[in-house]
């Protein structure tokens, strides 16, 4: 009986450890490959720890002006899309939370229903519209496209935070002479910091990981973002420089890793907001 209890207590831990290993191993192998020479990648048995780590891939990468251009474009597009998403989602979510109007439920469902369509089904129509308005090969056009992709879920998420703020606080501020914008920016926003941070992280990750929009709407190499640049510049048709590709991938996950490291509690609270009432 004692052995069964020990086994029963250890089984969940073993399962969690196996699942963690399953998730972490690709990241470990990606990092390991970036420190290997291409000739050592296909050895049998494989090198689990490189005997002589190679740093030439990182030196070559940071000396490449094209890579820094891709990286800068991804940061500009990511921060631009995040800023616009935060502003638009905040006003839209506050309006849906505090005001009653006809077809409110239909409007909210219509906004959310845009998430049901796959990106591929929108690209042809979006490309035609962008071509007509001269938005192809522009960072602003890519920012607009990524903002429309992250905005529906962001509106619903921030609305949940606004719903949890008592209306009595706003009524008291209104009695004291505060305007609607003063109430929003001075009272409501400080109380919804977890929601704002979670929306910012979500929209930045969505824009940073984008591939289809940037590959379709950007054709100039100097305007490409990181993911599209990797697929075009570092992946060949017949052969692959796996060490360089893994080096680029390791470098590209640094901003996302830092976001999760410092703001993970806000992301968790944002995703679980409204799960329990009372």
From TrEMBL:
In this protein, which residues make up the domain named ABC transmembrane type-1?
Answer: 71-263
Chief location: membrane
Pfam families hit by this protein: BPD_transp_1
The stretch of residues making up the signal peptide is: none
From the Swiss-Prot or TrEMBL record, state where the protein is found: Cell membrane
Q: Which Gene3D superfamilies match?
A: MetI-like (1.10.3720.10)
State which residue ranges cross the membrane: 7-31, 75-94, 106-130, 142-162, 183-205, 242-263
CDD domains of this UniProt entry?
Answer: TM_PBP2 (cd06261)
The alphabetized UniProt keywords are: Cell membrane, Membrane, Transmembrane, Transmembrane helix, Transport
Which membrane topology describes this protein?
Multi-pass membrane protein
Q: Which family does it belong to?
A: Belongs to the binding-protein-dependent transport system permease family.
Q: What is this protein called?
A: Carbohydrate ABC transporter permease
């Amino acid at each position: 009986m004692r052995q069964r209890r020990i086994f029963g207590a250890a089984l969940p831990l073993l399962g969690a450890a196996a699942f963690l290993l399953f998730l972490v191993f690709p990241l470990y192998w990606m990092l390991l490959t970036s420190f290997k020479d291409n000739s050592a990648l296909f050895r049998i048995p494989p090198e689990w720890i490189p005997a002589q780590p190679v740093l030439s891939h990182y030196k070559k990468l940071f000396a490449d002006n094209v890579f820094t251009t891709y990286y800068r474009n991804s940061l500009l597009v990511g921060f631009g899309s995040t800023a616009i998403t935060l502003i638009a989602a905040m006003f839209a979510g506050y309006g849906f939370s505090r005001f009653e109007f006809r077809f409110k439920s239909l409007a909210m469902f219509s906004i959310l229903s845009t998430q049901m369509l796959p990106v591929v089904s929108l690209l042809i129509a979006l490309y035609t519209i962008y071509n007509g308005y001269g938005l192809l090969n522009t960072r602003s056009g890519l920012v607009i496209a990524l903002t429309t992709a992250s905005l529906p879920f962001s509106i619903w998420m921030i609305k949940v935070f606004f719903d949890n703020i008592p209306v009595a606080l706003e009524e008291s501020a209104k009695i004291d002479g505060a305007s609607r914008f003063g109430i929003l920016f001075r009272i409501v926003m400080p109380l919804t910091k977890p929601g704002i941070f979670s929306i910012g992280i979500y929209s930045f990750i969505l824009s940073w990981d984008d591939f289809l929009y940037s590959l379709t709407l950007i054709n100039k190499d100097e305007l490409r973002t990181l993911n599209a640049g990797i697929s075009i510049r570092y992946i060949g048709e017949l052969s692959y420089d796996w060490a360089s590709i893994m080096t680029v991938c390791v470098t590209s996950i640094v901003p996302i890793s830092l976001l999760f490291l410092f703001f993970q509690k806000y992301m968790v609270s944002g995703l679980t907001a409204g799960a329990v009432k009372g």
